[in-house]
Amino acid sequence: MKRRTVLLATGATAVATLAPGLATAVSKDDERAGVRRAADDALAAVYRVQPQARKAVESAAGYAAFSNFGMKLLIAGSGTGKGVAVNNKTKATTYMRMAELQAGLGFGVKKFQLVWVFETEQALNKFVDSGWEIGAQATAAAKAGAMGAAFQGAVPVSTGVWLYQVTGDSLAMELTAKGTRYYKDSELN
After folding, report:
1. pLDDT confidence bin for 26, thresholds 50/70/90
2. What pLDDT, on the 0 to 100 scale, is given for residue 135?
3. Is 160 within 8 Å of 104 (Cβ atoms)?
4. Phi and psi for 186 in degrees, rounded to 5?
5. Which of 9, 14, 20, 168 gives a 20 to 30 Å CA spacing to 55?
6. For residue 178, which of 73, 103, 74, 68 has the smallest C-alpha distance?
7. Euclidean distance between the first and the last CA atom of the chain, given in angstroms as a whole number
């Protein structure tokens, strides 16, 4: 009887010790699936308001899709988001995060989706490996006539890099990014 109690206690201890590790593995897989769904939703939102974007994304070297949430209260604001960067050639997926800080008067809450399109693999790799930081000086306005049909509605961020931003059911025609950083998600990769 004493031996059975010791065996049961040892088994219970082993399960209690291993269970958190098992739960963590499942929750990471669930989180990856959630991030992937959010990225797919971001792509669908862009395609809904700008159907030509599908061809741009599919023919590009790669893309990154993010779902973001931002809040601004009086003089300060912040935002967070998660997404994926995908190499269209290799189908490699990298899970990423976004963090934003901003200053200035305002009040509100905004959910928005971003789709980055990279014309070259070099631009995609730079985004994935080095992250991307946008400061207050990087304000751009979309001028549909100057970009050609493939990237109509997108904001040119740098050579060979385009950005679509959707808020609600409309394409944002101006992008103002202040203190925004994109980086690899060390917990999900």
Report:
1. low
2. 52
3. no
4. -65, -20
5. 168
6. 103
7. 48
Domain boundaries, the chain: 46-184
Q: For a pLDDT cut of 70, what percent of the chain falls above it?
A: 67
State residue 185 phi and psi, 5-degree precision: -85, 105
As a whole number of angstroms, the distance between CA 91 and CA 31 comes to 19
Kindly calculate the radius of gyration of the chain based on its CA atoms and give it in whole angstroms.
21
- Output b/e per residue, 114-131; b: 16+ Cβ within 10 A: bbbbbbeeebbbebbeee
Query: What's the pLDDT band for 165 if we cut at 50, 70, 90?
Result: confident
Tell me the longest C-alpha to C-alpha distance in the chain: 84
pLDDT at 152 over 80: no
Average pLDDT of the chain, as a whole number: 75
Which strand (E) or helix (H) includes residue 67?
A: strand 62-87
Annotate 134-153 with DSSP letters as a single string: E-TT-EEE--HHHH-GGGTT
Distances (CA, A) of 85 to 2, 27, 93: 57, 21, 6
CA 165 to CA 156: how far, in whole Å?
A: 12
pLDDT tens-digit readout, 79-99: 889 999 999 999 999 999 998
Burial of 155 (0-12, 13-18, 19+ CB in 10 A): buried
When pLDDT is averaged across residues 32-47 and rounded to a whole number, the result is 94
Whether residue 73 contacts residue 107, with contact meaning beta carbons closer than 8 Å, is answered with yes
